[in-house]
Design goal:
Blueprint: E1 2-5, E2 8-11, H1 18-22, E3 33-38, E4 41-43, E5 53-59, H2 63-83, E6 90-96, E7 99-104, H3 112-128, E8 134-139, H4 140-149, H5 155-161, E9 168-174, E10 177-179, E11 196-200, E12 203-207, H6 224-239, H7 245-253, H8 257-281, E13 288-292, H9 299-312, E14 318-321, H10 350-361, E15 366-372, E16 377-385, E17 393-396, E18 414-420, H11 435-450, H12 455-472, E19 482-485, H13 491-504, H14 513-523, H15 541-544
Parallel strand pairs: 1-5, 13-17, 13-18, 14-17, 18-19
Antiparallel strand pairs: 1-2, 3-4, 3-5, 6-7, 7-12, 8-9, 9-10, 11-12, 15-16
Helix pairs in contact: 2-3, 5-7, 8-9, 11-12, 11-13, 13-14
């Protein structure tokens, strides 16, 4: 075979594994190679090549690499539970900082915390014994029969693979345990030396390293607010009998999707109304309502809907845009690469912004600037704003939970809201749909329809966006007075209609092709639904339009 690696053509015999090839390239990476892209598709290192192809290796110290590591730990956890006789109980509920939150359904009076030492010890034995994690690819019909006859907890996976058009299904096997995983696993259990199992809420946290240091576990910092949002999303999904993609697809096939949509929207509207009620009961009235959240979390639509609910409560808030207070383009901070760092809080004229806030809260009239992004300059067009004594300001933006943005305003005058799209629905019991996947699909659709960006543009800028979120948003999320989940349980079938054609536009020669393949792999398991019944005030409309 002709194998292209780093623009170099090499000869290998058919049947050679990626693991064998990777050994010749280990010295080119700072951390261990844990997987590879083969012609843009993620593959396990135990995958054996049969044709000419192009390879790019995936190292552990990368976002994709750490996903492979964390996912592999879940398989080892499954094996440990089976070895201990604790079967058909695991459910991966959510992704917290460097951890998966999992619940265990136990049929006896034994508590989860009592079992943790045994589970951890069994996982350590499996890792130390260095068992191979085999990669298999078989015909779909054979895969269906295999999983049907096994004791694996994969009933929802069986429902998902039936309608797939692809002829072959891949799965993983280790110590006679089989399972399907959405993306690759490490080739041997010895790769997973750094981990921990700790009690958390009604379940356990499976902890894994951070990208900053892959050889040790970081200090754990709890995120109780975020965990509560995950729990709430889970409760909503269970209430709707729709906590995985198989359930969602069945709702579509059984003509129950419209009701799911209506209930999901009603639940969200009720929650927004409750937040407005909480704000209305604060005496004296909170003068600044600050809304922050990561990209494509629906901040703008949430702010508009919250404003309507506050008006229902007899409060008539005004809004101002942080974007209008950007510094002139020539004063914008830059990254080490020389590119503009638009995620930096110092892109905002903090002195002017705080000066205007103080005047507004004192009842003074202020002329509000307008920022022209085309020219990178600020202009004044005569637009003025003046607040009455009980009239608050709604401000939304990525820095709104950072007190540096509103440093001249007393804390007791602020009400902080964190919004994010926490996906309540999972692929199956072992495969969570990352929250970032829902957001990137939202952003891709919106950017293409309204901002003139190609799908490749969106995927290309996404790592920089994520880096900005890690620095400027996530460190402050737990300071929020309240958190709100903007995800809608029905949105993936709607987004698929728009996102799938865009992803197919990305050419194999583009660097973003690998990420497009991964997202297409997710979307192929989801049935499409028309957007006609999506309410015009839905958060989803911020991305799909109308």
């Amino acid at each position: 075979m002709k194998i292209t690696i780093n623009n170099t053509n090499l000869d290998y015999l058919p049947g050679t594994s990626l693991l064998e090839i990777s050994k010749n390239f280990e010295n080119l990476f700072q951390s261990k190679i844990v997987g590879a892209w083969v012609d843009g598709h993620e593959k396990s290192l135990n995958y054996r090549l049969t044709n000419n192809c192009s390879i790019r290796f995936i190292e552990l110290q990368s976002t994709i690499g750490m996903r492979i590591y964390a996912r592999s730990l879940l398989f080892v956890l499954q094996i440990a539970l089976n070895n201990l006789g604790i079967t058909n109980t695991l459910n991966v509920r959510g992704h917290l900082k460097n951890s998966f939150y999992c619940t265990l359904s136990l049929n006896n009076e034994t508590s989860v915390s009592e079992l943790i030492p045994q589970i951890k010890e069994e996982m350590q034995i499996i890792i130390n014994e260095n068992h191979i994690i085999e990669y298999h690819n078989i015909e779909k019909k054979a895969a269906y029969e295999l999983f049907k006859s096994s004791n694996s907890n994969n009933i929802h996976f069986l429902e998902l693979i039936q309608p797939l058009k692809q002829e072959y299904i891949s799965y993983y096997k280790c110590m006679n345990n089989i399972n399907y995983f959405f993306s690759p696993l490490v080739p041997y259990t010895k790769y997973l030396k750094v981990f921990d199992v700790v009690p958390y809420r009604q379940g356990v946290l499976i902890r894994f390293p951070s990208l900053e240091n892959v050889s040790t576990l970081p200090e754990y910092i709890d995120s109780p607010g975020l965990a509560t949002i995950y729990a709430e999303a889970e409760e909503w999904a269970e209430y709707l009998n729709c906590d995985n993609l198989a359930d969602l697809n069945n709702k579509i096939l059984n003509n129950e999707f419209l009701e799911i949509m209506q209930i999901a929207e009603a639940l969200q509207e009720k929650k927004i109304a409750q937040i407005a009620d909480i704000i209305a009961t604060k005496k004296p009235i909170k003068k600044l309502i600050l809304i922050a959240g990561p990209s494509s979390s629906g901040k703008t639509t949430f702010a508009n809907r919250l404003r309507i609910q506050l008006i229902v409560n007899g409060i008539k808030p005004e809004t101002i845009s942080v974007d209008d207070y950007f510094v002139p383009r020539e004063l914008t901070p830059r990254l080490d690469s020389g590119e503009f760092d638009f995620e930096n809080i110092n892109t905002i004229d903090l002195k002017l912004f705080n000066n205007h806030l103080k005047k507004l809260l004192n009842g003074e009239k202020v002329e509000i600037p307008s920022f022209e992004f085309e020219t990178g300059s600020r202009k004044y067009t005569g637009k003025t704003l003046q607040l009455s004594p009980n009239q608050p300001l709604i401000i939304e933006g990525i820095h709104c939970l950072n007190d540096k943005l509103t440093s001249d305003i007393d804390l007791d005058k602020k009400f902080k809201i964190y919004v994010s799209a926490i996906t309540g629905i999972s692929f199956n019991e072992y495969n969570r749909i990352p929250t970032t996947d829902s957001r990137i699909l939202r952003r891709m659709v919106r950017d293409y329809r309204y901002r003139g960006h190609t799908p490749s543009d969106t995927l290309k800028m996404w790592p920089r966006v994520r880096d900005g979120e890690e620095k400027n948003i996530f460190p402050y999320q737990e300071s929020a007075d309240i958190m709100f989940n903007t995800s809608l349980i029905y949105e993936l079938p709607i987004l698929k209609k728009y996102a799938e054609p865009l992803l197919y536009k990305i050419k194999t020669s583009e660097p973003e092709y690998t990420e497009a393949c991964r997202l297409l792999n997710l979307l192929q398991h989801i049935n499409i639904v028309d957007n006609a019944n999506v309410p015009t005030n839905s958060l989803l409309r911020e991305f799909i339009g109308n």
